[in-house]
Structure formats: C-alpha cells, structure tokens
Design goal:
The structure holds two protein chains of two kinds. Chain A is built from 13 helices and seven strands. Chain A is of the alpha/beta class. In chain A, the strands form two sheets. Chain A has a five-stranded parallel sheet, with helices on both faces. By secondary structure, chain B is α/β, with parallel strands linked by helices. In chain B, the strands form three sheets. In chain B, strands 3-2-4-5-7-6-12 form a seven-stranded mixed sheet, sandwiched between helices. Classes of the chains: A alpha/beta, B alpha/beta. Chain B: This is Alpha-ketoacid dehydrogenase subunit beta. Chain B: Keywords: Oxidoreductase, Thiamine pyrophosphate. Chain B: One of its GO terms (molecular function) is oxidoreductase activity. Chain B: Pfam families: Transket_pyr, Transketolase_C.
Chain lengths: ~350, ~325
C-alpha cells in the first residue's frame, strides 16, 4: 500500500557500522580518517578502561569505592564518542559516564572520590570542560542545551555532548532538551547509550517507538543510530555530528546500541532479567575484540600490547585509589561553606555546632 | 525621582543590569516581543535585542535547566516562570540542579540565576496562578528567596539578586504589580539580600509579614492605633536568609509578636520565623507568637479567595489575642 500523505512516516533505521565482527571494514565510506597512532591510542584507551572497570568492581567489593556503575561492554561508545571531540568541547555526563570524564581530563583519583561520596570528586579542574556526573536521570541533557546556547551566543565553535541511557530517553527533560535544541538550533549532541536495560527494565518496555533515534524527527534535529560495539562507527557518528554543530547546522541525537556486560550497579543481580544466550550473543560483539582484530590485521596491535596496557592500567588505578584514600576528609563546616559564595550568618551559627 | 509601580521598578532593575553586564539575559515564555503576560519585560527586547531577551518554547523544566547550563558558562540568566504554579514542572532544575550546583561541584561551578515568578492571591486568577510556594523554596538549601512588597525594594532587591552569584527565587506578588506607585531612584542601587525593614514603628506588638501581607499588616496596625495599640510592622523582604536579628530587636521592645503569611498555615515561613524567635528571644516574650495564615486547604478557586486570605481584621484579632494573653 502506498504511503498516505497525511500520516507521518518514519522509515526503519539501520545502525551505522564500519567493522564486521571479524574486524574487517564493511563500510569503507564511513571509515573515519585516523592515523595509525590515533588507532593505537583508541585501543589503548579501551583496554585501559576495561582493566580499570575490572579493578573498580573489585575495589567496590572491598568497600574502597562507593556507588559504582560498571562500564564493560560500553568502551566503544564511551571512549569513541569522547575521542571524536575537541578538548574545549563540553561533556555533560550521567552517572555511568565516568570514562568520558577521565579521558576528557578529569583526574582519575577525582572520579574515585566522586564514587566514594567525597565533594572534591566534583571539583572539576578549571581547564577541564566537563560537568560532574549527574544522578537525576536526564537533568544533564538540559544543561547541555544551556551550555550549547552559551557557545552559540558567544560565537564559539564548541560543542556540548550529553549522555544518557535508554531509560533517560523516556524522561520529560529529554524531550524538552531536544525540542529546545531544535528550536534554537544549538550545537549539542545527545548521545543515548541504549544498553538494552534501564536498570532491569528491557528496552521493549521502555518505548513504543521503533528506535530512540526516531525521536529526533519530532524535535527537528538529526537522528542517527550507530552500532555502539564498533568504535570506528561511534567516532564517525560523533565526528559528523560535531562538525554539523560547529557549522551551525544544529543538534544531533545519536542512539548508540551497546551493552553492559555487568549489572547496572554493584548491587543488582542481572541473572534475574537477562539470559545467558543474550549475554553470549553480545559477548561476540565485544568492542575490544572487534577493534583488536582490525588492528592486528593492520599490524598495529598484539596480545602483548593488551597485557602491557592492562598492567599499566592496574598500576595507575592503584596509584589513584591511594591518592583518593589519602585525600583530606570532608568536614561539616566545609560543606556548609560550600552552600553559598558567602556563608550567611544563620549558617555560620549552624557551623559552630560542628566545630 | 521617578514614580513607578512595582512591575515598572522590576523592569527598570533588569534594564539597569542588562545595560551594565553583557552576561545578563532574560528568557522565558512570552517575555520577548509582548514583554510577558504582565508586561514586566515590556520594551526590553526592543532595547537589547533578541540575543539578550528571548522567548523560549513552553517548557518550564527546560527554561530552568537552560539557565543552569548557561550559568555554568558565566552567563547570568533571569529566567521567568510565567506563573508560580508552573514551578512544579521545574522543581528539579530549580531546587536540585541550580541550588546544589555550588555544593555538588565543591565551588567549581555556580548558578548565578534569578528565577522570577509572579504569585499571590486576591486577583481572581486561574487555578495554580497564585499559590504561595515560598515554603517549598525555604526547604531548599542553596537557594535564596526574596519577596518584595513595594517598588523601591523590588528594584534594589532585583539588582542585588541579579548580581548574586547564587540562585535566587524572586517572587513578585500579582496584587502589587500595579497597586500603587512610589518614588524609585533612577539608575542603580541595591538593597542587601537578607535584611528586613521596619516599615512602621510601634511598642506594643510586632507584626511580621512579607509581600502583600505587609500592606494587610499596616492596614491592621492603622486600625489598631485607633484604639491606642501601637503595632510595629516588619517587612521581611528576604525569606532566606531570614533577618532574625531585626525581629529579635523588635520583640525586645514589644514582647509580643504575630506572623502573617498568605500561604497555608502549616510548616511555612511563619512556622520558621516562630521557631527562630523561640531560639533567640523566648525570654522576651509575654505571649505565644501567633500565626495569621491561609487555612490548610488547596489554594481556593477565585470566588472564595477574598475570604480565604488573611485580612486586616484577622490580623487585628490575632494582635488582640496576644495582647490579652
């Protein structure tokens, strides 16, 4: 049957991918232009992030970290999307998006402090263009629109990127942000890391839409779906979106199809809502294996390289967790003094109870 | 000196600051060409352009969230929430994201935002246009709350609010926008945030109020004077930080107090004021401090609001109660 002109249509979308599961280039048109050194750097960061995640999970079990949301499986999405940006672009993360913060410049020990519930974890250094992780799902999506509007008003060729999950794409703030970005043509990238589950709720119960990327249509911005286990595809999608944003062509919503190999947080049991078959299927798409094969075929990477990076990551994590543990404890008077620029008299009085 | 009503004074404050600081912006629903549904921002887009004063899509959480994002980049947004009842849509962005920005980031970021909203009853507006929601804001660490009662204060406090590096919830009483004109200086002047004002001196009882209720309190005080009762009236002006010192000084003189608020009686500004009086001045009291407030119902539909709201007669009755205790 032919399309009826008065009915809004949205054609099915096929995710952008560059590499096959065996690491062969299947879409050369979308292959991002990267030097061998850059390709190795990307692999380095993904292997490092995996090893750091492994170590962080152990540190969590030992009680040396606080709230921690595992990231294994999402390295291509996290590392690749950040790699596609400039250092003066702004990153507005959700709580799981710690790797993007660290690769964008947040010292690792501060990420650990954040996890431990130390205020210094959020004291982003002045030259690092990130917000601290956001707990309220989707709140940061609006902040990114505000930051993007600041860039636009000042005529800066900078981009704000914000991350949320498939669950976050159901929040009202998400729609308001997309709509504002469309109405004001803002240089912002909405990266939705669709890892299949909002804690335990599967994607099919999240929305009746055929994809999250389709939600861009109603906001008048560009929508893109990308294979989030393929780091080159992620880099391509984010690079293109950033270029459009810098050229004044407005916002892009990128749905990144990915998977978290571990549970949502350290305190839930993924076996209750996922099957072994599903996990095995996604394991085949492991972004480290896939990109690793690509690099091996190019003679750029070996297993020894992976082992070396893992050791380096372990040593770095140990150094930074020690630094986090050695950081001066917070005090209640110190917290009180962080409420306002100048502590009002009534808070000075309340401070006295803790001195 | 110019004669201005309160909305003109607020507009003048914003004009002064738009001129002084290129980082000051005004945005919200309908604030641009038309100048807002109450014309508070009238003429400002024409004078400063669409880059500085602009309309947004209709979405309160996004208006507030946009302000938070821009605030992190050094802009000083004045974000208008068109009517007070619509702040519920923006509570996370106002009371969580803006108010916690300095704390969460350990001072790396701040939120130098003024959230303006009209509120206040007695004007027969539609449901959720008039409620007194300042009590919600008082439970929000990190947010300052200002409620002016007259044009002079409104301008000076608005300029202070715009210059403040922390978020300010600036509540403008609908019934005061065009109620009367008063002398307002040209150019810039500030009124310190957190300083109450003794608007009428007296020795027998202290009446503490803010916003429209300052005028109700003064009317009551004038009535009481006819029977020889001298009431002191304090206009709080800022609800957070609260100027308890001015209140205590007054109570040392009068030994009796009542607190008047439009909002529902329970757990509001009056309850907080009385708690602080108990902490700081209980030995100076000759009677319990009473509240005159709206009853604990939903803010009523228009036809009954004049009965629902505190009146000079109810204030006077409370004064008699504390005097006769």
């Amino acid at each position: 049957m032919s399309k009826q002109p008065h009915v809004v249509h949205a054609d099915p979308v096929t995710p952008l991918s560059v590499l096959s599961l065996d690491g062969d280039v299947v879409n050369p048109d979308f292959l991002p232009a990267l030097s061998d050194e850059q390709l190795k750097e990307i692999m380095y960061r993904m292997v490092f992030t995996r090893a750091w995640d492994d170590r962080a999970v152990n540190l969590g079990r030992q009680g040396r970290l606080g709230f921690y949301a595992p990231v294994s499986g999402q390295e291509a999405s996290m590392v690749g999307s950040e790699y596609a940006l400039n250092k003066d672009d702004y990153v507005c993360p959700g709580y799981r998006d710690i790797p993007q913060l660290v690769w964008h410049g947040l010292p690792l020990y501060q990420a650990f402090l954040y996890s431990r519930g130390h205020q210094h974890g959020g004291q982003v250094p002045a030259d690092v263009n990130v917000l601290m992780p956001q707990i309220i799902i989707g709140a940061q999506v609006l902040h990114a629109t505000g930051i993007a509007m600041a860039f636009k008003k000042r005529g800066e060729k900078r981009v704000a990127i914000t991350y949320t999950g498939d669950g976050g794409s159901s929040e009202g703030d998400f729609y308001e942000a997309l709509n504002f970005a469309g109405a004001f043509k803002l240089p912002v990238i909405f990266a939705v890391q669709n890892n299949g589950y909002a804690i335990t709720t599967p994607f099919k119960k999240q929305t009746g839409a055929q994809s999250i990327a389709h939600k861009a249509v109603a906001a008048g911005i560009q929508g893109v779906q990308v294979d989030g286990m393929d780091v080159l595809a992620v880099i391509k999608a984010v690079s293109d979106a950033a270029e459009r944003a810098r050229n004044g062509e407005g916002a892009t919503l990128i749905e990144i199809l990915t998977y978290r190999f571990r549970p949502h947080s350290m305190s839930d049991d993924a076996t209750k809502y996922r099957t072994k078959d599903e996990e095995a299927e996604w394991a085949l798409k492991d972004p480290l294996i896939r990109f690793g094969k690509y690099l091996e075929k190019k003679g750029l990477w070996t297993e020894e390289d992976t082992d070396r990076v893992k050791e380096e990551a372990k040593a770095t994590v140990n150094e930074h967790i020690k630094k986090a543990e050695a950081t001066e404890k917070m005090t209640v008077p110190g917290l009180i003094d962080s409420m306002f620029e100048t502590t009002p008299a009534y808070l000075e009085e309340q401070k006295a109870d803790f001195q | 000196m110019a004669q201005m009503n309160m909305l003109e004074a607020i507009r003048d404050a914003m004009r002064v600051e738009l001129k002084r600081d290129p980082n000051v912006l005004i945005f919200g629903e309908d604030v641009g060409k038309v100048g807002g549904v109450f014309r508070v921002t009238e003429g400002l887009q024409e004078e400063f352009g669409e880059e500085r004063v602009f309309d947004t899509p209709l979405a309160e959480s996004a208006i507030a969230g946009l302000a938070v994002g821009m605030g992190t980049q050094g802009f000083r947004p004045i974000a208008e929430i068109q009517f007070v009842g619509f702040i519920y849509e923006a509570l996370d962005q106002m009371f969580v994201q803006a108010a916690r920005m300095r704390y969460r980031s350990g001072g790396r970021y701040n939120a130098p935002i003024v959230f303006r909203t009209p509120f206040g009853g007695g004007v027969k507006a539609a449901e959720l246009h008039t409620d007194s929601l300042e009590g919600l804001a008082l439970q929000t660490p990190g947010m300052k709350v200002i409620v002016p009662s007259n044009p002079y204060d409104a301008k000076g406090l608005m300029i202070s609010a715009i210059r403040d590096n922390d978020p300010v919830f600036f509540m403008e009483h609908l019934n005061l926008y065009r109620k009367f004109k008063a002398e307002v200086p040209e150019g810039e002047y500030t009124i310190e945030i957190g300083k109450a004002n003794v608007v009428r001196e007296g020795s027998d009882v202290t009446i503490i109020a803010y916003g429209m209720m300052v005028h109700t309190a003064v009317a009551a005080a004038e009535e009481l004077e006819k029977s020889g009762i001298k009431a002191e009236v304090i206009d709080l002006r800022t609800l957070l930080p609260l100027d308890i010192d001015t209140i205590v000084e007054s109570i040392k003189k009068t030994n009796r107090a009542i607190v008047v608020q439009e909002a529902q009686k329970t757990s509001g500004v009056a309850a907080e004021v009385i708690a602080q009086i108990n902490e700081k001045a209980i030995l100076h009291l000759e009677a319990p401090v009473l509240r005159v407030a709206g009853p604990d119902t939903v803010y009523p539909f228009a036809l009954i609001e004049d009965t629902w709201l505190p009146t000079p007669a109810r204030v006077a009755a409370a004064v008699h109660k504390v005097l006769e205790f």
